[in-house]
Amino acid sequence: MTMTTRTKLKEAALRLFGQKGYDGTALSEIAKEVGVKTPAIYAFFESKEDLFMTVFEESMSAYNEYIQAMAETSKGMNTEKKLHALLLRQYDYHRNKTELAVFAFRYLIFPPDFLLERMQEAFGRFDTLLSSIIGEIMQEGLDRGDLAAVPIETLVDSFLTLMDGLGMQYYYYKSPELFERKLKHAFEMFWRSVAA
What we know:
The protein has helices at about 5-20, 25-35, 50-75, 80-95, 100-110, 115-145, 150-170, 175-195. It has about 200 residues and is mainly alpha-helical. The termini are far apart.
């Protein structure tokens, strides 16, 4: 199956924005990588900002879909296993979807100033979806008696914070063994604090 020009432009933009930053990436570079002239980009995107936001929103959506796929296949697991599987799924995403993960990570931490509000709105939508996925797991855990009687918002917020911290830590360590040890220990401490 051949990729459409629009898809090729998005993939080139993902790679170049991820490597060089928003300001460091010219539309002409994206066009050159795809093998089209710069004005051709405007047949698919209104502006550089539109191309960037399309790639940003699609990267966030890809992450949520990747996480949601695990949540859907974890039926029958107890709460501890589901939550641990969610962290392992996130780790897998960082290892196997590197360009998407690096792009999203870079711009969640250092968004272009003039896009900050739009990016925060987009992030808020995706955070709500992810919170919903985790909330369902937590509610099921409360209903089954796997979790201590803690408000669901507290459970979701603390688990999201654990995911965020581990997501950042992934980029600190070159050794998979060291990161996996940290993931294991962080989850064990989290689970001890919330288990019934």
